[in-house]
Amino acid sequence: MTKVGFIGLGIMGLPMAINLKNAGIELMVNDLNHQSVKQMTDLGALEGTKAQIGKECGIIFMILPNGMIVKDAVFGKDGIASAVKKGTVICDMSSVTPVQSKECYNRLEKMGVSFVDAPVSGGEPGAVSGTLAIMAGGDQDAFDRLIPYFEIMGSSALLIGGSGSGSITKLANQVIVNMNIAAVSEAFVLASKAGADPSKVYEAIRGGLAGSAVLDAKMPMILERNFNPGGKISINHKDIKNVVETAHEIDVPVPFSSQLFEVFQALKVEGHMNDDHAGIVQYFEKLAQTVVKSTTKEY
Question: Exposure of 213 by Cβ count < 10 A (0-12 exposed, 13-18 middle, 19+ buried)?
Fold first, then answer.
């Protein structure tokens, strides 16, 4: 395997990079957070600038906060593209718009460089355990070169189609996940305000049609009032904004997603951007002047 670059050592990126390093991959990393970089170099990874990564690495992964940061990492001053070699595959695992992914693909294709948009689902737990779901857009040959690394970071990886397909799939994923959390939040605020024990309600419904991976991931956090971020509200706020903007560009009405974006806006005003998106429940709690809190530990 070639030397691999990894740019972005945040909540998701750091455990993904650790899994690659622990699998024996020769890794060069870059991030603004010096502590995260040190954690990787202590494991034997090399630190490098974006230009160094472009020059020395045949495969480069990125997972960054938004599309503008992604484009700057690639095309900005002393970015990857300033020194990248022909034949390199750049894989962006960030959540961005399909337009931004296609722009990167088209510009890099002219340089003889492959670009794959491959955002992930599974949150921090999936990143730590190496069980992420990876949804990719790009060319088959570039995707095939990434498969050995995808198998380390995830439990599934699928090439959806051409450039931008992975990004639009992630936006669809984010609609479903965040809408699910919002529905769970509204339902349990209703049950709690009516006097039902939310822990018992959870146990009663989780095995039925209302049960879901989202319910099982987020309801224990809500009951314990644990909003330490695995998937920050700020990231999901950005994703739903991307959903609304992308949908409007192609004339797709998204009334529920638009309302969800306003829920996130309200949470932003209240200072909850760094909470896990299980914290969506706080919007509904404020409306109803109640708190969903466990009175038992039977979940």
Answer: exposed
pLDDT-flagged residues of the chain (< 50)? 299
Average pLDDT, the chain: 96
CA distance 26 to 8: 16
Residue by residue, DSSP assigns 246-289 as: HHHHTT---HHHHHHHHHHHHHHHTT-TTSBGGGGHHHHHHHHT
Other Cβ atoms within 10 Å of 166 Cβ, number: 32
The per-residue pLDDT for 212 is 96
Q: How many CB atoms lie within 10 A of CB 136?
A: 26
Q: What is the pLDDT of residue 297?
A: 63
Q: What is each CA distance from 195 to 2, 148, 289, in whole angstroms?
A: 59, 52, 13
* Catalytic annotation, residues: 170
CA dihedral over 177, 257, 9, 222, signed as positive or negative: negative
